[in-house]
Amino acid sequence: MCGIVGYNGPRNPKDVILDGLRRLEYRGYDSAGVAILHNGEFKRVRASGKLSELSKKLEGEAFGGRLGIGHTRWATHGVPSERNAHPHKVEGVSLVHNGIIENYQEIKQELRQLGAEFTSDTDSELVAHLIARQVRATGDLFKAVQQVIPRLKGAYSILAVWEKQPDTLVAFKNGPPLILGIGDDEIIVASDVQAIVSYTKKVIYLDDFEIAHVRGSDYKLFSATGEPLRKPVHVLNWNADAIEKAGFRHFMLKEIYEQPRAVAQAIAPHIDLERMRVRLSGVGFGVPYEKLEGLDAEQDAAKTAQQLSGIDRIFIVACGTSYYAGQVGKYLLEILARVPVETDIASEFRYREPVIPPHSLVIVISQSGETADTLAALRLAKQAGAMTMSICNVKRSSIDREAQGHLYMNSGVEIGVASTKAFVSTLALLNLFALFVARSRGQLTAEQEKHHLEALLAVPAQMETVLSYDKWFGEAAEQLKGYRGILYMARGANYPIAMEGALKLKELAYMHAEGYAAGEMKHGPLALIDERMLIMMVAPTDHHYEKTLSNLEEAKARGGHIISLGTGDNQELKRLSQYYLSLPKAEWTVSPILAVIPLQLLAYHVADNLGHDVDQPRNLAKSVTVE
Ligand code: F6R
User: Tell me, which fold does domain 468-609 have in CATH?
Assistant: First the structure.
């Protein structure tokens, strides 16, 4: 969703803001703009389309001041256009906004009655009007913002500047993230650390209903009601190199290749290699967030085991790819630990009045940790009295901070809008979590636990071999893109992988795709099959294999063209398929981690071959901070 960058310091604000916005491009956007101080006023330049359009317009533009704000907009109210692009400017107040003002109709009507005229169709412009009215009354931007906050309903993060106070920037939030980067003689405010990490590693994470009052390189923090706040400054431990393409054509391809490492990093903290036991480390159920880092791993693992042993039911709630990871988790937890598990799409869960019995654990999964529906589902689960745990990639994200227990994907920054490495890290974590719960409930012998851990530890090396299909899909893409659509099918823990494969093709190649449980074929989708429909059948040698084979025979008999994914050198699958791709022999628990890689590569190469923007597919955003 929208990206925000504000700069107050001695460098050229135009350069810092453009660089920051470029690093936030992955969030998805359709227009961009800046307002930078020059000769006592904030000069505004905006452009529809990509940042390159804005850069072209900014070429040769000189700015004399130290202060500026910038924005990449992902349209919610009003079409993507220059007129609707941010910053919005009303009587010397310039403002950028991420989120949605839910009561904008009411505010608009009120402002209209007061004679206001609007130059855009956005909800954001209304906030600029409200602040402009208040600065007129108070003569102070900070006070004006304080008075406007209670008027706003919805989710928002906002930066505002006013030309009568040319050293001041005010930032406030309720919902989408805002971060303050603290440099030596400069402050950068942004939606995400990516935008600031080249300038400073020191960051403050604003919480909801907090205001940052930045004057020059000084900052003060307040609650929305004006109480001064002291907040810790965190020091980031990664650098700007982590967010470069490192020679790959796209971030997505780089991230696909980073998957073996991502899995290794996700599981490393949680395995006691000497005893070959899972030792969930740092989950910290109920420990205050700021104290998590000082936890004693052994003690916490023992406490976590005890807390989980009393759980009667688990809910896993997430959106999109994270939801499919959760569905794999259901197979793992039910089969290994024998706990009933319900999986839910967050936007359904939050509105369906779910029955959450006592002794329930609600696990929310979110790479970004900011997905609005998932965050709302988490809050609902807490209100219902459930124990909650998050699986996030972004530490200190809203979901991570609000959950009672925490696991981290540890995948490193994921820039491609289509999630890949965070997905496999989550599968690996759910694997460990299922083993841990199974042991806590007496469902797993030490021997079985060791066996499953060995399978998981072997998986990063096995993933490397599957990555070699990159070349094959690169060559096959030309032909594959000619199909009317692709039907992905599988059984068991690989069934969610079929759905994930279909989602990837839809979002990247904009081709029609369906993910189905192979056993459902006769109940409808068989009618879709002809020689223009490609079937991707995930059929590893497991206890579903014979049944999947029959499904494949049925598809072949109806003229379907088949790519099958099987284990080792499988002659039967070769006979039935146009193309056969071999996966390494693996336990069913880790098979989804291997099987998803060819499906990611397929979507990537077909989309690239079609000339699509693979890292930023149309209409999509990386961090979905509005519902
Ligand atoms: C698809 C994809 C999305 C996300 C979804 C949830 O490739 O990446 O479906 O999985 O928007 O995002 P997070 O995990 O950040 O909550």
Answer: Rossmann fold (3.40.50)
Which residue from 34, 423, 499 is spatially nearest to 262, judged by alpha carbons? Answer: 423
- What digits encode the pLDDT tens for the residues 287-323? 999 888 888 888 888 899 989 988 999 999 999 999 9
Residue with CA closest to ligand 1 atom 6: 319
For atom 13 of ligand 1, which residue has the closest CA?
366
Residue 471 has pLDDT above 80, yes or no: yes
CB atoms within 10 A of CB 448: 14
Of the candidates 579, 540, 542, 576, the residue with the CA atom closest to the CA atom of residue 559: 576
Give the nearest ligand 1 atom to 371 CA.
16
**Residues at CB less than 6 angstroms from ligand 1:** 319-322, 366-368, 371, 374, 418-419, 503, 507, 624
Q: Which two tokens stand for residue 527?
A: 């009618």
CA of 415 to the centre of ligand 1 (A): 12
Question: Which numbered atom of ligand 1 lies nearest the CA of 417?
Answer: 8
Domain 3-237 has CATH 3.30.420.40: no
Phi and psi torsions of 144, nearest 5°: -60, -45
Q: What is the mean pLDDT of residues 519-533?
A: 88
Q: Other C-beta atoms within 10 Å of 525: how many?
A: 18
For residue 458, how far is its CA from the centre of ligand 1 (angstroms)? Answer: 27
Helix, strand, or coil (residue 497): helix
Q: Which residue ranges does the chain devote to CATH 3.40.50.10490?
A: 256-458, 468-609
Ramachandran class of 552: left when φ > 0, alpha when ψ lies in -120 to 50, beta otherwise = alpha
Q: How far is the CA of 591 from the centre of ligand 1 (A)?
A: 21
Residue nearest to atom 1 of ligand 1 (CA): 418
Ligand 1, atom 10: nearest CA belongs to which residue?
A: 321
Q: What is the location of CATH 3.60.20.10 in the chain? A: 3-237
Active site residues: 2, 622
Which amino acid, 606? V
Q: What angle do CA 401, 405, 408 make, to 5 degrees?
A: 75
Please report, as a single letter, which amino acid is at residue 561: H
Q: Read off the pLDDT of residues 42-94 as tens digits, 9 standing for 90 and up.
A: 999 999 998 999 999 999 888 888 999 999 998 877 888 999 999 999 999 99
Q: Which two tokens stand for residue 200?
A: 């400073």
CATH 2.40.50.140 fits 256-458, yes or no: no
